[in-house]
Amino acid sequence: MQKQLNKIKDELLDRLKKIRDFNAFKDLEVAYMGRKGKMTQILRELGSLSLEERQAIGKLANSIKNELQEAIQKAKDSVKMQEPSGILERERIDATQPILGAKRTGHLHPLTQVQYEIEDMFRTMGFMILDGPELESEYYNFEALNIPSWHPARDMQDTFYVKSELERADRLVMRTQTSSVQVRAMQKYGAPLLAIVPGRVFRSEATDARHETTFDQVEGFMIAEDISLSNLSAIAKEFLNKLFKEDIKYRFRPGYFPFVEPGVEVDLACKICKGAGCKVCKNTGWVEFMGAGMIHPNVLKAGNIDSNKYQGFAFGFGITRLVMMRYGIDDIRLFLSGDLRFLEQF
Amino acid sequence: MKLSLNWLKEFVKIPENISPEKLGLDLTLKTVEVEGVELMGKYLADVVVGKIVKIEKHPNADKLKICLVDIGGKEEILIVCGGINLREEMLTAIAKTGAKVKWHGGEEFIIQKTKVRGVESNGMICTSSELALEDFIPQGDEREIIDLGKEAEIKNWKLKVGYPLKDVLGLDDVIFEIDNKSITNRPDLWGHFGMAREVAAIYGLNFPSMEISKDYFKGKKNIDIEVKVKDTDLCPRYMAVAMSGIKIEFSPEWLEKRLIAAGMRPINNIVDITNYVMLELGQPMHAFDKFKVQNSKSKVNIEVRKAKEGEKIVTLDNAERKLDENTLVIAADGNPAAIAGVMGGENSEIDEKTETIIIESANFEKVNNRKTAARLGLRTEAAMRYEKGLDPNLAETALKRCIDLIKQISPKAYVSSEIINIKNFKSEDIVINISTDYIRKKMGVDILDDNIINILESLGFKVVPIKNKAGLLLKINVPSWRSTGDISIPEDIVEEISRIYGYNHIEPKMPKLQISVPLENKERTLERKIKEILSVRFDMSEVFNYSFVNEKQLELLKINVEESIKLINPISSEHTLLRPSLIPNLLENVKNNLRYFSKLQIFESGLIFKDKEGDITVRSGSSEVLPYQERFVAGAVVRGKDDIPFFAAKEIVEGLLNTLKINYSIDILENVEGWMHPYRSARLENKNLGKMGFITELNPRIAEKIGIKSSHIGIFSLSLKELLKFFYKEEIRYKKLSKFPSVLRDIAIIVDKEVLARDIIKAIKESEVKLLKSVEFFDYYEGSPLFTNKKSLAFHLYFQSEERTLEDREVDDIFKKIVEKLNKKFKAELRK
User: Fold this and answer.
1) Which residues of B touch A248 (CB under 8 A)?
2) Least enclosed by CB within 10 Å: which of B234, B306, B630, B703?
3) How far is CA A326 from its chain centroid?
4) Please, what's the b/e burial string for A307-345 (b: 16 or more CB within 10 A of its CB; e: otherwise)?
5) Pairing outcome for strands B665-668 and B682-685
6) First to last CA, chain A
């Protein structure tokens, strides 16, 4: 029996060497190891042997069985690995071939992309992201911001007025600035208050490559105890460096906005000529980027905030202009064109 | 506004080492925005006086002439020219080769030796605009060259052939262009004198002063003027004086040059002087011809009053103006002679025969002035200054200066009346108390006390420092020219210190704040998620459209125009209404993009507006609310012809809502809007709690009407406000995974087309609540061999128990139960 077993072993190992076809393994496995296989049959005969013999032969048989199973598996794997002329080659594809009927990729509007970038930066600095009505009362758009009806500053912003059939004490306007949310936010949240307001604003002016009736701004404000001009400068610096991903040169100069005092304009070193002077910066080396300043006590008062205890700064800039600067877009009207040839570039 | 450097220098001694560019920059950084610094006569570098010796026809061009020109050199030169007023012996301006001039008054170019239609030309005979001299030498036709001889006669220029034109004109000034917007709040800066004060403060120079000769008032007082100010609120100060012995002529050259430098056209000596004083001090002046405002009476009667309804005046610009009760006028002998602070009347205009004048130097209230100017569309130099709110004290200085100047220029002139001076204002000093600590705290800078005091004093503030326990308190008297509403609170003082100290010297320092997590703006979070899912997962591109539409656009889509809000002052007929829906503009996008693409998927998120009550109050605490304005997200999908666009849109909406874990149900939309496909529309709801939105297709008839060629447009619209109600509500409860295998059975049934898939699925689920785990729709069929009113639907049914392995027989029984129920409820038959 021992001889028989060794014979089967040699036989099988010999046959394994010759096999090249994957299916042949299965046949071989069945012929030797299957229910009616040679190996199995011999093991069945074990029952007729004495206990000692049974133990000795059984041990040998098992080790041979394991050895054979291993050999089969090994041979199988090696054939699988090589598969020189097999099925897989017939599945070869041209990996460079474009996808048939592929959908075009979706794109977020460039304004949205930059807006989200800005929102994320400010959120990490602890600012809330706020909204406000685009169709606003004259009160929040002007009066609450220290711009009474007679104020010449109203001429600085051509305003769309709106007609409603419902009677109201206040006139209605399409907001001319996202600053309109300042006092609403103060009334709702009180101080301390850190917030930015990205959103759409409107001006009734004729459109051309540089002017639009509709564009996007970001208003920001920080109200807390002991807020100073130097804090405004620091936040502006932090934000600008992150936004432009470099140490950007900026400067403050006096600017007039009735809702801040002191009021400043923030200019950036012209990115096109690097400060040398060009058409874009009107030869000054600087481009206007945002208006800012310390919130006027009258505005804090309108927002029910104690201006003796709290101070704050506010700033505002146009995202539309920023996006134009960043991507070199020369016609503002493209933003609202809905033209996919434009939008799919971003 | 334009500033002349020479004029400024009359009041401050600007150090030699400060270049005009540096001065411009420092003014920009500390006071006002200087938009440009320009050398006068910039284009005159190589321009000389020349004499046309001989003119010949050009052989190849009718409109061109060949001119032989003497420019003072050894030889005369040939220049081809198209000027229409060329004549021999004419003295004119010649740009030599190498000169930089403005081509037809526009782009700069450099003159070169060239051939013009085959004839050599060695320079250019210039027009005024080519040398940017329009203000000095008025130009008629654009092809009219400068006739220097004619001009010289009027202006006493000394001309010599070959002389640089720049020397002839004496142009040695530098002009600063100031951005008017940046001095909206600074009435004191609307003249050279005020600007000189700033320059002095910036460089620490002596405070500017103006000298007025002491005997300005001399003369025989034989004219009696009576002024009545009826409306004292609108006219806080009125000063007037008569001057006789006037001779109207052109102003001396130095005066004309100043006016031109500041951008004003010279007219005659008296008008020029009133303008000069305005440009110098910022106080508008007006001069009337005395004989035109006085009838036979012995007195000149002037009344400052509101106009009467129906009164009219012809203003100096030769236009008849209707006046109303809000217009303040200066009436002489009962008739309006000027619109106060805006423009004079033609009936009292100074002309060449004028001998006696009445000079007005007054202060008018800013709000009414601004309204009047706006109503009449007359934003004159005077109105621009009055609307800022002028210092009433300035009227007196200006009147004296005006008299003094007139006497200098017209030596026989003398003051022939008493000075009328009606004051209706209080001249109390504004006093601001502020501690230096407060200033340091607001600036965030350790600026020294002395430094603060120096800055304030250099600007004309009077400062009394008071030491107390808390530190140094400053009692600050605001000068009258800054007491016009400009400076009234401590913050204004902080601004003065900060700007002169230099904003850019303030070191950036991060604020010290308590850390807190910002409150989340849930609507924004949801909107952002939606945008990201639509673009990233469903390959949609985001568009933005105007918030405006027009009537026609809505009518074509059968959208009710009545509900829309109108713009009172639209600037385009395309944009007259606020959009009551995102769809109209979205369809425009589809239409435009279909010119370039056959398939597309776009969406927009934005506010829509309706003329009904919204939920935002007009003011805090008010019961009035703003009109309805809510955010929607809408999309349009154009796919291939084989796809049903409705389902394309539905796939997106369902995918979106499932990703957001928002529960919803979909129902047939019965009452479709006019533009929707009547049989391909659904509404989205959540347990009847409100309308989340809809999914539809554009009605093909409407598509045709609005010029969209493809009739395969799927559309959806979702209300952000409604979605938000369920966005944070979803609660996930974990269910244990079954250890036992699930059994799959497919079912295919034939039903009438009217039967809704949703009802079938519901019925299947209700037949076996416990063991039926899920129902998956996998096939739809209609057509032969089915009857035309029939359809076939097929579903995978998954059965599973949590407790044991299901037996085939068990599942067979349930399946049978389901088939029976479907048959009973929908007359459904199994499809074999």
Assistant:
1) none
2) B630
3) 18
4) beebbbbbbbbbbbbbbbbeeebeebebbbbbbbebbee
5) antiparallel
6) 79
User: B618 touching A, CB under 8 A?
Assistant: yes
Across the interface, whether the CB atoms of B592 and A338 are under 8 A apart is answered yes
- List, for residues B223-241, the tens digit of each pLDDT value: 999 999 999 999 999 999 9
**Contact call for A336 and B545, based on CB within 8 A:** yes
Residue type (1 letter), B277:
V
Check CB contact under 8 Å for B29 and A258: no
Note the pLDDT tens digit of each residue in B85-135: 999 999 999 999 999 998 887 788 899 999 999 999 999 999 999 998 887
* Closest Cβ opposite residue B627 in set A116, A131, A164: A164
B593 touches chain A (CB under 8 A): yes
What is the ipTM, given to two decimal places? 0.86
Query: Is residue B28 within 8 angstroms of chain A, CB to CB?
Result: yes
Q: Which chain A residues contact residue B541 at CB under 8 A?
A: 104, 106-107, 340, 343-344
Is A206's CB within 8 Å of B571's CB? yes
Query: Both tokens of residue B512?
Result: 């010290």
**Using CB atoms within 10 A of its CB, is residue B167 exposed (0-12), middle (13-18) or buried (19+)?**
middle
Q: Tell me if B509 and A230 make a contact (CB, 8 A cut-off).
A: yes
Share of chain A above pLDDT 70, in %: 95
- DSSP state for residue B665 in the 8-state scheme: E
Which of the four pLDDT bands, split at 50, 70 and 90, describes residue A60?
confident
Look at residues B549, B528, B682, B539 and name the one whose alpha carbon lies nearest to residue B602.
B539
Q: How confident is the model at residue A22 (pLDDT cuts 50, 70, 90)?
A: low
Q: Give every residue of chain B whose pLDDT is below 70, as ranges.
A: 296, 688-689, 711, 730
Please, what sign has the CA dihedral across residues B449, B454, B460, B462?
positive
How far is B579 from B592, CA to CA, in rounded Å?
Answer: 19
Q: Which two tokens stand for residue B221?
A: 């007082």
Closest by CA to B669, choosing from B659, B678, B660, is: B678
Give the single-character DSSP code of B572: B
pLDDT in tens, A304-316: 999 999 999 999 9
Chain A positions in Cβ-Cβ contact with residue B597 (cut-off 8 Å): 340
Mark A177-204 as b/e (b = at least 16 C-beta within 10 Å): bbbbbbbbbbbebebbbbbbbbbbbbbb
State the Cα–Cα distance between residues B829 and B797, nearest whole angstrom.
17
- Closest by alpha carbon to B404, among B415, B395, B393? B415
- pLDDT for position A82: 60
- Written as six digits, the tokens of B345 are 């009347």
At B781 the pLDDT is: 93
Read off the pTM.
0.85
Q: Does B544 touch chain A (CB under 8 A)?
A: yes
User: What SS3 string covers A246-307?
Assistant: CCCCEEEEECCCCCEEEEEEEEEECCCCCCCCCCCCCCCCEEEEEEEEEECHHHHHHCCCCC
| φ/ψ (deg, to 5) at A321 | -65, -40
Evaluate whether B446 touches B506 at the Cβ level (below 8 Å): no
Rounded CA-CA distance B94/B455 in Å is 51
* Chain A residues 169-198 with CB within 8 Å of chain B: 169-170, 172, 174, 184, 187, 189, 192, 194-195
Residue B158 C-alpha, separation from nearest chain A C-alpha, in angstroms: 37
Q: For the stretch B61-78, what's the b/e string if a residue is b when 16 or more beta carbons lie within 10 angstroms of its beta carbon? A: eeebbbbbbbbeeeebbb
> How many angstroms separate the CA of residue B129 from the nearest CA in chain A?
22
Q: Please name which of A131, A108, A120, A124 lies closest in space to residue B523, comparing C-alpha atoms.
A: A131
